[in-house]
């Protein structure tokens, strides 16, 4: 048998039909659904008089539009558009009999945090969602990617997806990370290195000692941003850490089924002599705590750096950098750690898990914020409950942070949590596009520890100075 990558193995195990031109029909194991990209898909089913093909494999949760304030049970806190979308999901979940975590359920949260938490996401699966950050689930050694609304309808109706195979790309992070360097610094640094188009046409497998050393939370952070590097999906081979995380979760297999699943999961790795179409290798020790300065996730620099000048770039990037600097209100040559911050946002499907809150609380312990506003938005109700139990919530509150309910929140301006024009934010999310967090808002992406450091100093800060 010819050697295969992990991606090849999962792909081959899910192809139901292959056409002459290589177009395949893939079987889908898990379909995650949120309120933004599903209303038309359900409407399509309704009009055609069809059912959801596999309601037991379809899991829905509202996350993008939901307010995160404690009074959110009061529908008046939602805009009309948001309310319509969330109510539509309530109704669609009930009408079509799919698994559902409504706003009132403690398990509600960001779809990419809820899936793994509830044991829906398992190694070797195909996982799709009408959402680009579905790549997050690749941390389990699942083939997971975003799909469009018409594809959401196709998967609801048939539990299959029409796909062409991507190429194989390996991103290896060798050796150990230095103190203060986290999964977020890895994933941002990779995009800084390859650019936002570096992964176009590929599925990335992240590997190497630094990746193995990461917790499951950290691995999810890395895979989450595969899409920002242009890749179709990102994944990491499952290992003992993966199996330990999955074991005992509500929807993980049990007993004999667990044993059978485990036997298969242990075959899910890239063969030593598998073929890679592209390989990127980065030394773990070369990665620093980083921040973004511009309006693309590839605009990444170590915190010890300076704001670049447009002339530092080549080709089309010169104009893009000029525009970015203008939008961001930054002067070339300014040391990054002198950039003043108005707001700090800790949360999102990139960094809204318990380990992220622990890392931020570690820096904040006994300190006060020096920014206008700061909020922590746990990725799920269960993350929130655990953080309260561990005393993290109190650390955030004592420091001056708002302690919110779960949702996408200020990651994107689809709910009341938004930046004002010109407001500058240290954010743990994954996109820094113009207007992403609110019209005219300015976003600097970084790790939770770095965001906490910015919160206590009032400017972008090298977290290593506070450690
Ligand atoms: C709203 C949704 C379709 C979108 C996505 O696909 O990623 C959002 O989650 C985002 O992060 O921009
Ligand atoms: S937290 Fe942000 S990136 Fe993640 S799904 Fe929500 S809006 Fe998209």
UniProtKB/TrEMBL annotation:
Enzyme class (EC, first level): lyase
CDD domains named in the record: IPMI (cd01583)
Record text on cofactor binding: Binds 1 [4Fe-4S] cluster per subunit.
Enzyme Commission identifier(s): 4.2.1.33
Pfam families membership: Aconitase
Domain Aconitase/3-isopropylmalate dehydratase large subunit alpha/beta/alpha, residue spans: 8-458
Record's keyword terms, sorted: 4Fe-4S, Amino-acid biosynthesis, Branched-chain amino acid biosynthesis, Iron, Iron-sulfur, Leucine biosynthesis, Lyase, Metal-binding
Pathway: Amino-acid biosynthesis; L-leucine biosynthesis; L-leucine from 3-methyl-2-oxobutanoate: step 2/4
UniProt entry tagged with the keyword 4Fe-4S: yes
Catalyzed reactions per annotation: (2R,3S)-3-isopropylmalate = (2S)-2-isopropylmalate
GO MF, one annotated term: 3-isopropylmalate dehydratase activity
Cofactor: [4Fe-4S] cluster
SUPFAM superfamilies from the UniProt entry: Aconitase iron-sulfur domain (SSF53732)
Chain residues that bind [4Fe-4S] cluster: 349, 408, 411
Assembly: Heterodimer of LeuC and LeuD.
Known function: Catalyzes the isomerization between 2-isopropylmalate and 3-isopropylmalate, via the formation of 2-isopropylmaleate.
Record-linked HAMAP family: LeuC_type1
Entry similarity comment: Belongs to the aconitase/IPM isomerase family. LeuC type 1 subfamily.
Protein name, entry field: 3-isopropylmalate dehydratase large subunit
